[in-house]
Amino acid sequence: MWYILLLVGLAAAASDTYKDRRFQYILTNQHLFIDKLERDLHEIDDEFKKLGSDVKDQTVRHLKARISNLEGDDCKEHEAPCGGDVPQCISDLFFCDGHKDCKNGRDEDKEVCSEVPADIGSSFAGVVSWQACEEATPHHAVVTITANERKEFFKPRIWVRAILAFEEEEHEHHIKTFQLRGYYSFGDRTLALGPERGTKPVYGVRCHFDRGDDDHADCQIVNPASLFVCGNFAAERH
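Above: the chain's sequence. Below: its structure in token form.
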């Protein structure tokens, strides 16, 4: 009997050793992959710095924004990065409030504090890829800003009203429209819209301007109650 117990104990120990070694192997490979990714990103960034004037500024901004998105940041929820070589995060409510809170002053830069994404009449259009909520093939959606207000006592936000419109039946051209209200945040460059008061809470929209300019955004159509993502579209300003 003791012999069987000894074998069971040895087998369990061997199993634990195997699991530990396998875990260490996976962890080491992940670290190597992350290190390689960081090297690749820095090499691409160095190549950008060497580019001449033949390359469009917009192209460079888009690619740099993509690199920044891949690298990510260590900011907490409701914080935004200051950018630059020295990492720093501040509250997204400190951006564009008239006081420099980032060490490099980026939170008050003209580009960061651009109001273009919330301009009245701006329309952001793209082809929606529905994941749920609508039984529909991909079709065009448009978010149009109809009103805005930037309050003097709360400058980090622009309060906006907008209309979401998309085709209900692609071939019959039936258009669904939804009145929305919300805000544009300078800190995280996000347009967040929910149903207008007094309207049926069907959809909301979140657009993140993460492509290096004010004219392109990654947008989601969401359920306003659960924030469940119904569809995605890459939006361009018109």
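The radius of gyration is 24 Å.
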